[in-house]
């Protein structure tokens, strides 16, 4: 896997994590 693909995958993973985290925070209210 080349560096470009790796960077894209990391972006996707962090995007998913931040979405899940904000949903979790909203559910905790």
List keywords for this structure.
29 residues, mainly alpha, 1 helix
Write up this protein:
This protein has 29 residues and is mainly alpha-helical. It has one helix and no strands. It is rod-shaped and about 40 Å long.
How is the topology of this model organized?
Elements lengths: L2 H26 L1
Q: Which shape, going by the Cα principal axes? A: rod-shaped
Q: How confident overall, as mean pLDDT?
A: 90
Q: Classify the helix fraction into a percent range.
A: over 70%
How far the N terminus sits from the C terminus, by CA atoms, comes to 41 Å
Uncertain runs are none
List how many beta strands DSSP finds. Answer: 0
Main β sheet profile: none
Mind telling me the C-alpha Rg? 13 Å
Question: Which structural class should the secondary elements be placed in?
Answer: mainly alpha
What's the tally of helices?
1
Strand composition percent: under 5%
Order of helices and strands: H
Short description, anyone?
This protein is mostly helical and 29 residues long. The protein has one helix at 3-28.
């Amino acid at each position: 896997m080349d560096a470009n693909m790796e960077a894209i995958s990391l972006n996707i993973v962090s995007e998913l994590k931040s979405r899940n985290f904000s949903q979790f925070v909203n559910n905790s209210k």
